[in-house]
Amino acid sequence: MNQYSDFAFVYDELMSEVDYDGWVKYIEEIIKKENCKVKNILELACGTGNMTIPLTKKGYDIAGIDISDQMLSVAREKAEKQGVELVLLQQDIRELDFEITDLDCVLCACDGFNYITYDDDLESVFSKTHELLKEDGIFIFDISSFYKLANILGNNMYGENREDIAYMWQNYFDDEENLVEMELAFFIKDEDGKFERFEEIHQQRAYTEEEIIEMLQEVGFSSIKVFGDFTFERPTDETQRIFFVCRK
Ligand SMILES: C[S@@+](CC[C@H](N)C(=O)[O-])C[C@H]1O[C@@H](n2cnc3c(N)ncnc32)[C@H](O)[C@@H]1O
């Protein structure tokens, strides 16, 4: 039961209320505020291309990497429909291997790094990112906060009953390992009106802001800024999405 296999084909529908245009705008504001010239971007854990496609349309040269073939195939299909050419690579970012260096920007949007559940692995992603960036290049990513995973998602159950999709999403938070295990069960209506069920188990690691900063410093990032929930303010105790903006 791999993560983001069957789920890939309903991901966009379930994310339909996420304001990706606003997200792209926020990333561009960060770049502008940092006074940074960005032409090329490497996007880690790009999924179905919800950031990759609009950023490509805006004229950036982007390559997207994701571990899930299915997420990438959805991205390819969407890009083709919109007449956008994407460079997509199937790869586990824990073993990130990208040929082009001197990158202007590395991006990881929508909590991709929470899927990296071991410190050593995440530190190695940060280290490789540092190597790939040009001098003064910018690294922008967000994570779901410890507060969100432990107190909002953790030990909670969600569900929705839409016309064509119903799902149950049961979470368990392990406060020794700081891991949230998410059991997802989906029921998808087929052409004959019958519902097919599939399941996936996802695991996300809750990291504190301090843990992340320590790892970023360890691999050599100097200027590290931390913002909460699409603002330019410091996160509060109840911030759900934390943005990190680092310069090499
Ligand atoms: C919540 S989705 C975010 C997708 C996309 N960035 C977006 O904004 O919609 C998390 C993504 O991380 C990817 N992912 C998880 N672990 C990964 C790994 N080790 N290497 C590469 N991608 C990974 C998943 O396949 C999934 O596409």
UniProtKB/TrEMBL annotation:
<feature type="domain" description="Methyltransferase">
    <location>
        <begin position="41"/>
        <end position="137"/>
    </location>
</feature>
<keyword id="KW-0489">Methyltransferase</keyword>
<keyword id="KW-0808">Transferase</keyword>
<dbReference type="InterPro" id="IPR041698">
    <property type="entry name" value="Methyltransf_25"/>
</dbReference>
<dbReference type="Pfam" id="PF13649">
    <property type="entry name" value="Methyltransf_25"/>
</dbReference>
<dbReference type="GO" id="GO:0008168">
    <property type="term" value="F:methyltransferase activity"/>
</dbReference>
<dbReference type="InterPro" id="IPR029063">
    <property type="entry name" value="SAM-dependent_MTases_sf"/>
</dbReference>
<dbReference type="GO" id="GO:0032259">
    <property type="term" value="P:methylation"/>
</dbReference>
<protein>
    <submittedName>
        <fullName>Methyltransferase domain-containing protein</fullName>
    </submittedName>
</protein>
